[in-house]
Amino acid sequence: MRFRPAVVLHVFLFFFLAQNGETKPSKIQIHGGEGDARWQWLGKKVQYQVHHFPGQPGVFIKDMRRGWTIECNADQDFPSASLIKIPIMMVLYKAQAEGKISMEEELAIQKNEKSRGSGALKHERVGTKHTVRDLIERMITESDNTATNMLTQTLGLNYYNAQFAQLGLKETNFARKIMDLRKRDQGIENYTTPKEMGYLLEMIYRKKVVHADEMLNILKKQKINDRLSVAIPPPWEIGHKTGLLRNTCHDVGVVFTPSNDYIICVLTSGVRNIRRAKSFISEISHLSTVYYRELTPQTADEKSVWPQTEKEPSSISPDSDSGKSGG
User: Fold this and answer.
1) Which of 64, 117, 235, 264 has the fewest Cβ atoms surrounding its Cβ within 10 A?
2) Which residues 6+ apart lie within 8 Å of 304 measured at CB?
3) What pLDDT score does 117 carry?
4) Domains along the chain?
């Protein structure tokens, strides 16, 4: 997807309706698992949460062994916020493999690359140098916006968009730099969909792209863990990336369990209460955990993070990136 003039009107109408509690009904689609009553139960419970969410949700859950999916607005465009950093990372590793950049190349912070929001690099002096490898890790694990701008400048928006198309992305675009709020106010926005985020994660999971193992390890080092990962019990693992902007809150990831691994992408827009959005994302993750726990013999080391209940959790961990954007 590229910037379209009609997008401005579409975004205005969407947020107007969302703020007035008039978002269109969202219907769950369950693909596969017709003979699995628990999978059908999971779909119905996700539908219940979606129906009661005060905003516009998007959900994409995929069982990696059986290919079954549960989807809600999975093909709908959402402002990508910091989810855009996943395909940016993928393009950078591809550029390294093609000899266009080196992971050990050092980039110096420029004044115009410093950005508010997530990350610590905005506090460092102009001229401070970091390797491309370090910037990628900061971009993903800390959602550092300054690191993202430095990496964006290295290859340019046009290059990234061309590479996104080569990856097979049709809706995910890179129309403006991270935290360029002036352009956002002009209606120029970065978009993605829950399904395309799931598609990218599956490419990494199945090693369909270069340096997939390294990228997955970076995703597993994520430091913002107040959404999907809240409901993931040890020793299960999750590699994931969050996104946060005004009225927008996301988390997408791959969960590794002893039985079946799965992809889970939960995106939200038109949100007035970010804490409520984080709770919604955590609850969808919790429901998925309940389903996959049934498939997994519990070990002595496994602790239940959530009670085995279908009710909404009474408490969520404090907003680790409260007051920040781009996380």
Assistant:
1) 235
2) 233
3) 82
4) 6-295 (3.40.710.10)
Enclosing H/E stretch for 280: helix 274-295
171, 196 Cβ separation under 8 angstroms: yes
Poorest-pLDDT segment among 24-38, 252-266, 291-305 = 291-305
pLDDT at residue 320 greater than cutoff 50? no
Query: Side chain identity at 165, as an amino acid letter?
Result: A
Residue 7 CA to residue 85 CA, distance in Å, equals: 22
Both tokens of 131, joined, read 């390797």
Residue in the structure block whose two tokens are 């992971």: 103
Query: Secondary structure of 242-273 in the HEC alphabet?
Result: EEEECCEEEEEEEEECCCCCEEEEEEEECCCC
| Tokens linked to 181 | 């709020």
Using DSSP's 3-state secondary structure scheme, residue 31 falls into: strand
Distance between the two ends of the chain, CA-based, in angstroms?
23
Q: Quote the CA–CA distance of 289 and 301 in Å, as a whole number.
A: 16
Partners of 130 in the β-ladder: 107
User: What ranges make up the beta strands (E) of the chain?
Assistant: 29-31, 56-63, 69-72, 78-79, 106-108, 129-131, 191-192, 237-245, 248-256, 262-269
* pLDDT 10s digits, 48-79: 999 999 999 999 999 999 999 999 999 999 99
Q: How far is CA 116 from CA 71, 124, 305, 325, in A?
A: 34, 12, 33, 8
Quick one: average pLDDT of 249-255? 98
For the record, the structure tokens of 199 come out as: 């598609």
Whether the predicted pLDDT of 16 surpasses 70:
no
- Is the pLDDT reported for residue 321 higher than 50? no
Q: What percent of the chain has pLDDT over 70?
A: 83
